[in-house]
Amino acid sequence: MAKKGKGSAKADKAADGVSDADRDALKKDERIAQLMLELEEAKLGTAFADKRAEELMRARDDLRREIITVKQDCDDVLADMERELAARSAIASDLQKTVDDLTAKLEARDLRVQELEREREIARQQMAQAGAVVAEREKTLARIRELEAELEGREAKIRIYESNLNRLEGALRTAQQSADDLRLAMARSTHTVFVGALPWTLQHTRQKLTDSSVNVPTERDRSTLTKIGSKLYLFGGTTRGGSGTNELFAYGAELSLWERVRASGDAPCARGGHCAVALPRGRLLVFGGRRNPLLNDCVLFNVDSGIWTPLKTSGVPPPLVEKAAMVVVGNRVLLLGGDCGDVSENDPGIQVLQGLFELDLETFTWRICPATGIPPQRCGMTLTAAEDGQSVFAFGGYGEDGACRNDIHVLNVPGLEWSSPPMVMGTPPAPREGHAATMIGRYLLISGGHDRGHHYFDTFMFDTELLCWESLDSGSGLAGFSADSAGPARLSGSQAGLPGDPSGRPRKLSEAPGEGSPERRLRLTAFVDNKLLCWHPTDKTNSLILLDTVDIQIPEGAFVSRAVRNDEIAAEAHADPKEPRAVDVTWRVPPKHKKRAVAFKVLMGVKTSNVIREVYSGTEDHFHLSGLRSGADYYFRVKGEFQDGGCLWSNVAAFHLEPAKDRPVTSPSAHARELGRPTFFDGHRW
């Protein structure tokens, strides 16, 4: 557009009548319109540029994908080429190895060819010597044939020698067996002991049982032997290694054979120091013992069915206890004593069970018996019932101080009253525990036992009517073996504690004090009727295959009551009216024994003391005793001694020394009743 001159502009302005401000505004509007057009054109250009950029981006992405695809293809090709190269390298390596192997084989073959050449040369040399070798061989074969002939002759002689040797060995075995039989036969011995005026014969025999490591029990401690029917049942105990066992064996006396009992059911755990008694209908009752800790369970074994059954009891059972004493009386089982302390290595103390316990065999209910006069409680004693079931005798055992006892106590079963004999004659057995005991008629027999490592092998008899101890056997035939008894087998199975350990704590044999050697051997001892059986091992085995039997042959008159037999010295005491503190003791010997009596002894004791003194010894039939204490109760007995070594006792006479005035003459039996002291004769009170 052509620019106008100033003159014309002013003319136009004047002509149009428009001011300059309006024109400037109009120009600005036109400029804005022009800029808007340019803006729209720029937007169109930008949109076109964005679209072109998107197309370029898509092209770039397509190119990138194509590049990735090409790269992957190149990588695949390169990997294939590398694998092929590796395969070719492996093939080349194998080929090189094959070449090396072939080369080595060729070299080895060359060496072998050289060796064969040398061997062929040697063979040529050996072939040259073959003729001489063949000739020498012929000579050697001829010599071999000569030697073979000589060897056959020697083998024939050897066979003859072997036959003779076998025959001699058989003869030697026969001779050895004969020697053993002869030794056992020589071990048979018989001796007679006069008890009163009657001879008791004891026959000792020894035999070797069938040796079987399976069926013969090994030596053991604190076990029980219980007689049921015709067999003895051995249960439990502590073996030589110090561990407990629950093995059950049966011994048949008729065949003299042990057998292991194959039992079923819920067998009791291994234990020692338990109690075992025989119940009616062929049942064995096992109670208590120690397995660490103590036990107080009851288990029944039926010998007919061979089944163990735990016994469920009610009432008030005894506490956990070991080494108690148990006995069957009628339809109940009595239990006394035992150790219920928690014994340990650091505290080997003894806690003796107190009270008398009873188990009713009909209801299997435990209760504490309201017995009176219960003796001092102890462990390791024996309870033995009289044959009539009216009395039970307790002997031996040890108390909480560990000291063994040798006193005897009796329980009057109907009245549940304990008492001790007021005046026991004779020499009692040494204090002991773990012994065996049985009752034959009115006689209580005691055998074996031990006291703090000292073992006893003797046998004593206590006459419950005459209140007298007699030694039947000193045990010299059994003294080669220690006497750990399994307990009485006739009525009960009282256990034996470990020797030298009153606490009953299980210990190995080598630990027991006083034994002198770890090779100390144990034995089992039991009474069966009138026989004492003792099993012990040999020097070469710990199986109980040697059996010592002491057959106690009791004279017929021994079972006749003294009241019927009229076979005792009659003694009585008379007060001396002239001397307030004196009595006259007189006695009469039965006419049939009057010529045999050579001397008399008077033994006297006081009711309040257990001390018995010999107050007279001589040949007279009377004795004046002075210096007595007024108001005291006295007991005395007279002993008559015979020329043949026998003896005869009087009755136990009792009298009460009254003050000087009105002192009555007292008969023995009458005043004994007046004293009101519970005592016994043949199971009855005086």
UniProtKB/TrEMBL annotation:
Basic and acidic residues bias (residue ranges): 9-24
Sorted keywords for this record are: Coiled coil, Kelch repeat, Repeat
Q: Disordered: where is this region?
A: 1-24, 489-521
Per the database entry, which stretches of residues form a coiled coil? Answer: 46-73, 99-185
- Matches recorded under SUPFAM superfamilies: Fibronectin type III, Kelch motif
Domain named Fibronectin type-III is located at 563-660
Q: What is this protein called?
A: Fibronectin type-III domain-containing protein
